[in-house]
Structure formats: structure tokens, C-alpha cells
Protein 1
Amino acid sequence: MSTNCLIVFTRYPELGKTKTRLIPALGEKGATNLHRQMAEHTLANIKELQKVYPLSTEVHFVGGNSDLMQKWLGSGIVYRNQAEGDLGWRITSAFHTAFNNGMESVAIIGTDCPKLNAKIIEQAFDHLSRYDLVIGPATDGGYYLIGLRRLVPELFKEINWGTSEVLQKTLAIATSLNLAVAFLPPLADVDRPEDISEVLGYGINLDLKTDL
């Protein structure tokens, strides 16, 4: 088994509970369908990478259950419920579990970044052979990927999640801890109506009539 672990944070696609900031533009069904397709797009990239690179994959989810997640995204993946608490605690818990299970390099991503591909994920793990922390900056001031070689819980405390200050605050903490940081290319997340154009050209269907 690989000691490189990629953890994917996502949510089971349920009407009215998924990509809620996109509902005014796409409707409940359209927002849920977009989320579903972006998650499937993310997992397809991971599976391509696993053909040539040793990588264990876990999906940490909210909503649904393990059976529903497996029916949706397939087998060969470890499914875990996300921990209770704010995003910082959920990230900390995910890293803690992975390192306790013998993983040596761990990265966490979401499913909101259609431009995140296999090459960039591989680059993240290559960086983790030389750096303490790897960050994929998001253009909204957050990050789309964070990777570590050991648990550093301080990185996830007193962060105003969902704001444009997340990356800046995280890097300030990393500097105070003397962590060696590597950066990936900046990419855009799809969180708001003005972000929807980011999915064009990635095989994602914006036809709102598409069945879930």
C-alpha cells in the first residue's frame, strides 16, 4: 500500500444542500448536478494518476452514507464521514487519521476546482518529498489543496473559513512555525455564480434539465 494519501472532501449530492451559493443562478437541481459532475471529474483525474503513481485515496463526506457514496463514486476508495466541527477541525481530524494509519505524505482537496488535474496532484506529492507544506492557492484567497508530511494543527486554528484571508493567515502561521512551503499553480474554485464559466471545456454539462 502506498504511503501517499490523497483525501477528497465532498458532499453527497442532495437537492437544496449542495452548492447552495449557486442555487440563485442554477436552481437546486442545477447546483446539485454541477456538484455531482465536478466530483466525478475530480475522481476521474485521481484514477488516471493512480495508474502511474502510487497513491491511496480516501473520500471524506457529508450527507448520505458509505453505501450511497460507493454506489455514486465506485469501489476501491476508502469512505469516511467527515468529523463534526468547523472546517479547520475536520481537516485536522482527517490528517490525524491518515498519519495514524501510517501515511507519510497526505494532501487534502475538495471537488470544486475543475482545473485541478492529475499532473498537479502528482506535483504536490513530489513537493512533499522535500517540503513540510504544499499549498495550492485558490484565486479567491483560499486554497484548493493542502499537503503535509506531519500533522501541524496550528495551521487550522483561528482561521476565518470561507473568507479571502484563509491563505494569507495560513502562510503567516507556516512562517511562524518555520515550515518549508512549496506552491502549486493558482487555480479557481467554483463557489459563486460568477465562477461558473470555470467549468467550461472540462466535459461538465450545464444543461439544467440533466437528471441527477
Protein 2
Amino acid sequence: MAPRATVDVEFSVRVTEPGPAAISVAAAHADTEELAVSWHGESELVEFEHGTRAEVFELPAGEHRVTYHAERALAEPEPEPVTLADAAVFTRPSRYCPSDRIAGLVPPELFSVKSAKKKVDAIVRHVHERLSYVVGSSRGTDDAIDTLLAGEGVCRDFAHVCITLCRSLDVPARYVGVYAPGLSPMDFHAVFEAGIDGHWYVFDATRLAPRQTMLRISTGRDAADTSFLATLGCELDFLGSTVFATTDAALPVDDGTEPVVLG
């Protein structure tokens, strides 16, 4: 029997100006799940490509709590093909991944690497060695160049740098928000997928959790496409969150080099 993952999320907001907001915390392909909101409001489901789902709520003024619970079997999925549209979109520069401006920061040895897999492995290794993971070290406005110049960041920054370097070398790459059993400190996590030999595979330069047990939440060009909470006309203060993701089996050993498919 395949191991199972369990996810529990809770966060609170204080709404100062009523209006709609999008909540995107659903794990892809969950076997069971429940999203509960303290104001008992109705929502409209919005589905995007690549497994991203958002629930849009009309938020009244006041303090509110959101909880989410999900369970899913961790069967190994088939790799998703890189479509022509994917190749066109995920090799372009984006808000946090300015691949058109990073040429001077690309390690010269990467230009001579022919295999896409070897390019991505070299990028992940370079970013892991170049950057220090420091909680609270970056701003929400930092892009990949800011992170490289600072030499430190958090998971979203590691993912942005890897994506930017991949795209600068014509390897399609996209940003993925995930739940990551084994992550410490536990929180929402960010990794990236690269197009290799016509299929998407997941990589993580932080090496903070095994990729084999990660659960996809959202997929996009960069963090701008994958926020777990986005205002669509309301005004609110974010009051904090807790995230818990675990499995009922021992965590696998991940050497960081084997191809892994994210479900």
C-alpha cells in the first residue's frame, strides 16, 4: 500500500475593507479534503492549468480564520509532458525571474553543457553552494538578481534563481508551491520544475525536504502566480499561519540528483 500524506493549514486575517479574495491552499489530487472558513461564506471555485485551484470568497469586515485539511496517497505519478505552449511561456522572463538580465551572473561553465539534465543539475548545485538559506532574509519584492547579489534567501528565492538560470539557458522552468513533509521549519515551501527530455521534473536547491513526498499546491511562472492568499478588491491584514504536512511512512532519502516527478 502506498504511503499517505496528511496536510493541515490554519491562517487568520483581519478584513478592514470588505470584498473578494482568492484562497489557494488545495493540494493537487487530494483523496479527501475540507476547506472551512469562520464566516460561513460561499465560494466560487477557479481552476487553472497544472493543478492549481483557488476558492474566491466575499470577505466581510472583521477577523476570520481559514482551515484546510487534506489526505492523499503518495503513488508515483507519470511525468507530465512539456507542451509547445509550456516551452513558449516558461522560457520567457517574468516578474521575479528576469532571465533577460542575468547573463553576467550565469556561471561560464554552464554554457558548454549540452544535456538539459546536466544543466539543471549544475544549476541546482551552484545555487545550493552559492546561497545561504536564512529565514526572513529577503523581501517580497526581491527578484533572482537581488537574491544572487545578496547571497542569501528563503525557498522562493532559491527557486527564482534556479528558474532564471534555467531560462537563460533555454531550459523551460516553472515555479511550484508545495507541501513538504520533513521540512523544518514547517511552512509552505517553494521548488521548481524543469523541462527535461520533453517532461517536467521537480528540483529543490534548498535540499530541506525529500522531493518524493511533496504535494503540489500551485504552479506558475514565479511567486506572483502562486500566492496562497490574494486580494481581489478587499483590504486585509494577515495575522499569521501554521502549516503541518507529514506522511505515515519513513521519509525517503533524496540525494537531489535522481529524476523525481511531482504529483
Protein 3
Amino acid sequence: MPITLVNPSGLPKIDAYQQVSISTGSKLVFIAGQVAWDADGVTVGEGDLATQVERCYLNIATALADVGASLDDVAKLTVYVVDWTPDKMPLLMEGITRAVTKLGVTPAPPATLLGVAALDVPEHLVEIEATAVID
């Protein structure tokens, strides 16, 4: 596996992800921001942040599988949440937990969370992009 995840001493331990990823692979994979669309382009979980987060992770896993990778190969995630406030964290974590449990992945790679005013369509509450490294 080309990715090693680390929580360095001297930095806070975050439950949702590791602080650092070290890559040793030779090929970078960039996954465009994934939203809560199913394979037919229908929004899943309208109004439900946890369900949409879960679907974003599952879509990322699908994209990675198509190029011979998995979430274990992800070096970095960027998460965009519409109208972010800290009280949404439990829903975000619920969606992540459901997805990584289904996919059998732990711990999660480093991530950046950004609050945004809007996404591509009003029904989408979250968008997640990924960078992976594979051999």
C-alpha cells in the first residue's frame, strides 16, 4: 500500500482523520468532487447531510475501484459543506462512519473541511474530492 497515515505527537488527535499521509507510490489519482448522485444522476438523501456524506464516500470508492485503487490509497480529502456550522459535525461524522464501515476502511486520511455558500444544485449539501497515490 503506497499510503501510510500518521498522527504525529505534538498535534491533536482527531477522531475523523489522521493528520499526515506519507505516499510512496508513483501515480497520482485526482477524483473530482463527488456529490450525492447515484449512477443515474439522481440525488440521494435530499436534506440529509449524513446520507449525502456517505454517498460521496461511496462514489469516491467507485471511482477509485475503476482505476485499480481504494480508499486505502487516498492521501487527502477535501470536504465542502453548504452553510457549515459546528453543530453539523455529528451528521458529518455519522455519514463518514457509515461509509468507512461499509467499505472496511480505517483510519481516514487527512482532510480539509470548508464551509461554502452553495454547490452545483440546491439539493446537494456536501461535495468531497480525493487525491490518491497508487503504484
